[in-house]
Write a structure and sequence with these properties.
homodimer, 236 residues, alpha+beta, Jelly Rolls, Arc Repressor Mutant, subunit A, 2 domains, 5-stranded antiparallel beta sheet, globular, DNA-binding
DNA sequence: CGGTTGTTTGAACTGATTCAATCTGTGTGG
DNA sequence: CCACACAGATTGAATCAGTTCAAACAACCG
């Protein structure tokens, strides 16, 4: 059931569990879990962290989805990365060029870099763990570049939907699409008008069925082909 | 003089020096420098590492430029990252989705992950150093996404030229452009035909002057404005 | 000299944008 | 329960940026 993923009221999910499910050894997850932090509720599409703000925080998504975004000079917004539950945003030293907003209402655990760094420094395993996470994000970024640079608008939207389904661990071809059409446009480098047309086309072609925000992948093999979606890059 | 950067015959540049100039403490650079490795001459636009090959190597660029690339299903190539002298490609465990090719004739130092990892593990400072490098690459990737997703073709090419000038430490507004128009197209997600027109336009507008591969930035302030190029993201 | 690689140009075409209007669903307060 | 506001989705028509295809030209190199 995809809807389970949107019970952002599931207060029960601890940082410990989300990290373990991301592949971290339990004893190391404990270390981070015991780090002092607070849990914030983040409302979608409201300012959360603006571009240019100091980025001396560690964040982990407990539920919901966070986005990193940048804007070009004329204010057109581009979403450059997403963070699903269990994923995080590490401190980068200095200021961050990107802003952060929630895609849907999200629960985010926020700690301070000065608490986080010493813990990681003391455990090479943690360093390796986070390096792997960062490299996965890097791989996703590369795939997004191929998306924006080389695929047509249908493939771009299809690819995003496929990637999202995998990252949300959708099992039964039914997904509650978390994005507005404007957000899909901001991720795939298009206009919301065109995204609307693309989605309508995809439905007409029998790739998906829509009921409100609910999306059913009617033909997973075919949509993967259209999107040229090879999920290996997510498996790192 | 930009041309100095293309004397790939400058055998004298050691890994040690390139790492120190990238900000690493000398004693740590020594550790990596002493690691067993070989130096390869890589010819431009020939297969070097294919997508899907095991990525159990560390590479550092001594001279020249390396590119990481992916291709979409119909074979259209997208360059997703560049590595200038002093920059490197770290082992990612498992196989890499991207291929590697040189942009120009390059000297690359190649070591084995199994030699590299223990050294880094033994020194948290090295971990932090490489984390910072990776985060810089991440920031560059984000900027490229904005480029491909939100800027028009002139701004995209202008932005790439600005970024390249900064990363090559060009000082006097003269740069030996290292890219073919096809490569610019592969980076900015266009066709070489259009890149050609864009470059001609930029020259007509007085943004640049060209003499063969030599490019002169006639109006650095204006080209930065056109490109909406804010170099902060490179300074991490 | 012939072969190869890269650059330049033209003409026709098309995918996506822009602008503007309308429609739909949801939540809020009277 | 209705009226209203608001955010998001949908549609149409005109326009344009960038692609495609094809051909010519230039530079380099053994």
């Amino acid at each position: 059931m995809a809807s389970r993923r949107f019970k952002s009221a599931t207060q029960g999910v601890s940082l410990r569990e989300t990290l373990i499910s991301a592949g971290l050894e339990p004893y190391l997850a404990d270390l981070l879990d015991e780090m002092s932090h607070r849990v914030l509720q983040v409302e979608p599409r409201r300012p959360f962290r603006e571009p240019g703000a100091a980025r001396d925080e560690v964040m982990f998504v407990r539920s919901g989805i966070l986005s990193k975004f940048k804007s070009d000079s004329s204010g057109r917004r581009q979403i450059v990365a997403l963070r699903f539950p269990g994923e995080g945003i590490l401190p980068s030293g200095g200021i961050a060029e990107y802003g952060i907003q929630a895609i849907v209402r999200s629960e985010v655990m926020v700690g301070r870099a000065e608490d986080f760094d010493p813990i990681v420094d003391a455990h090479p395993e943690l360093h390796r763990f986070f390096r792997r996470l960062i490299q996965r994000n890097e791989a996703i970024g590369y795939e997004w570049l191929v998306n924006c640079g080389r695929r047509d608008s249908t493939a771009r939207v299809a690819h995003l939907l496929c990637e999202t389904a995998v990252r949300m661990h959708v099992k039964d071809a039914h997904m509650l699409n978390p994005f507005t059409q404007q957000q899909i446009a901001d991720i795939t480098g298009q206009t919301s008008v065109n995204v609307n047309r693309v989605l309508a086309d995809m439905e007409r072609q029998g790739l998906i069925r829509r009921k409100g925000r609910e999306i059913e992948f009617s033909d997973w093999t075919e949509i993967r082909r259209v999107a040229s979606f090879q999920p290996d890059y997510l498996a790192i």
